[in-house]
Design a protein that fits this description.
heterodimer, A: globular, B: alpha/beta, five-stranded parallel beta sheet, disordered N terminus, binds guanosine-5'-triphosphate, binds magnesium ion
């Protein structure tokens, strides 16, 4: 036991000191649903809060990985160290996956100032978002000041995506299906910055106009969301995108570590609670719960009402309003 | 045999790559697909990787297994890869090689620590079974060392 405790202490010390292998192993422990991963994460919590976590989200093929590659080049030119967490949807049948995002960031593999980790979206016990949030924390604790997170958005709700990153960049591109409809309304709502990528393609202007007019229909806050144009496989729009994300970070956190930690912790507890409740409701054999679900099935009470009863621990109180 | 979504065991992670000058990547693509279908998480690189890149990738992705494809003379630099892995404390990562390896050069690879070599005509089942066994050993060592630490 003592030997193992030493191993854990050693891993934590090395991670704090910025050792890449230690960080990579710590991520595996969380990603692999190992109990010890949870312990690690908790012990490192107070080391988190310094990193800016920028989420890059958008439909498949919109250019997320290519854009991240350009962001890496720009940030490295400025001397910033950057980590990337790329979440790839996995093959649902076998659970296996070819994790291909980092192929587009190949130029940066050999650079000590860049850390890239590919995560597959399959079976995380506490939910995918919970795992990602913890992994981001580990990278933060290891001293990476900027963490870029690539997510496709498949298998998660839009709000879940919003709860992972500190700053949400949502990508769209012309010619991805039905105009802007390719971007779901919900996903538009979580954006701190909107990007029309593939600005070199025909109809980019039209896509930009459509996005802007969609924003006009929303709340005042949303109308302030900048809409930028990029060509991800060039430098076009990259500087502007970085400035926009910096501005958002300033507004949201004012470089306050404790503020970020609180913000993230709240989201993590919310995520984990949602997942735990979901599992309970789906799989728990409980007469009271079954009765409640029956009432929903019979149309005696509504879904929202049932949820309220579960949350207040009142699911036995039949039909109470 | 496949890893199911409900399995307690995390998926095995493999890096499939090609070092050296030869650019024929059909073989490595096929093997990457085999391993994916067997439930592994596969990091796939284009050909022409530097040894230093392969080592950096293996470390950052914390893979259990590296598969190197060689059709020309690229396998002759695999001992350099093995040395570089050891230098970076990555000796727990199993390495297997696929492609055209002349019989007289096999000992060179084996003595450098390569765990298995698959020549032309190898069966999918054999490649997958071997890759899974090697990766599982490596993963067991990876997680086993820390499992059961007092909370
Ligand atoms: N013309 C043009 N092509 C682009 C641009 N950005 C990306 N592409 C191309 O779009 C394709 C998809 O790019 P990726 O970066 O892989 O897109 P992604 O969003 O990461 O894709 P997934 O991870 O599979 O969802 C590639 O062929 C890119 O070269 C751009 O600004 N203009
Ligand atoms: Mg991608």
């Amino acid at each position: 036991m003592n030997h193992k405790t030493d191993l854990l202490d050693g891993l934590i010390d090395r991670l704090r000191a910025g050792d890449t292998a230690a960080l990579a192993r710590a991520i595996s422990l969380v990603d692999g649903n190992q109990q010890i991963g949870q312990v690690l994460h908790r012990r490192l919590r107070r080391d988190t809060g310094a990193a800016n976590v920028i989420g890059i989200t958008g439909p498949p093929g919109v250019g997320k990985s290519t854009l991240i590659n350009s962001l890496l080049t720009k940030l490295r030119d400025r001397g910033d160290r950057v980590a990337v967490i790329a979440v790839d949807p996995s093959s649902p049948i076998s659970g296996g996956a070819v994790l291909g995002d980092r192929t587009r960031m190949g130029h940066h593999t050999d650079d000590d100032g860049v850390f890239i980790r590919s995560i597959s979206a399959r079976g995380h016990l506490g939910g995918l978002s919970t795992s990602i949030l913890q992994i981001v924390d580990l990278v933060d604790a290891a001293g990476w000041p900027i963490v870029i997170l690539e997510t496709v958005g498949a298998g998660q709700s839009e709000t879940e995506i919003a709860e992972i990153a500190d700053i949400n960049v949502v990508l769209n591109a012309p010619g991805l299906g039905d105009d802007v409809q390719a971007i779901k309304a919900g996903i538009l709502e979580i954006a701190d910055v909107l990007v029309v990528n593939k600005a070199d393609m025909p109809l980019a202007e039209a896509t930009e106009r459509q996005l802007k007019s969609m924003l006009k229909l929303r709340s005042f806050d949303q109308q302030q969301v900048p809409v930028l144009k990029t060509i991800a496989n060039s430098t076009k729009g990259i500087d502007e995108l970085l400035s926009a994300t910096q501005e958002v970070a300033q507004q949201k956190f004012r470089d306050d570590k404790a503020q970020r930690r609180l913000f993230r912790s709240r989201r993590q507890v919310a995520q984990a609670a949602a997942e735990a409740q979901r599992r309970q409701i789906l799989y728990r054999e409980d007469p009271q719960l079954t009765q409640l679900i029956q009432q929903v099935a019979e149309g005696q009470i509504g879904v929202t009402e049932a949820v309220e009863q579960i949350l207040t621990g009142n699911e036995g109180a039949k039909g109470s309003v | 045999m496949t890893t199911t979504l409900t399995s307690d065991r995390p998926p095995l992670r493999a890096l499939i790559t090609k070092i050296g000058l030869d650019g024929h990547d059909r073989g490595s693509r096929i093997v990457a697909a085999y391993l994916r279908d067997a439930g592994m998480e596969v990091i796939y690189t284009p050909p022409w990787q530097e040894i230093s890149s392969v080592v950096a990738l293996a470390m950052q992705e914390d893979v259990d297994l590296i598969g190197v494809s060689s059709l020309a003379t690229d396998h002759l630099i695999i001992p350099d890869l093995m040395t570089a892995l050891i230098e970076q404390n990555l000796q727990h990562v199993a390495v297997f090689v696929g492609g055209i390896i002349p019989d007289q050069e096999r000992p060179l690879l084996e003595s450098a620590g390569v765990k298995a070599i698959f020549g032309p005509g190898s069966q999918k089942e054999d490649i997958v079974a071997c890759a899974q066994r090697l990766a599982q050993e490596s993963q067991d060592a990876k997680f086993g060392a820390l499992s059961g630490v007092a909370v």
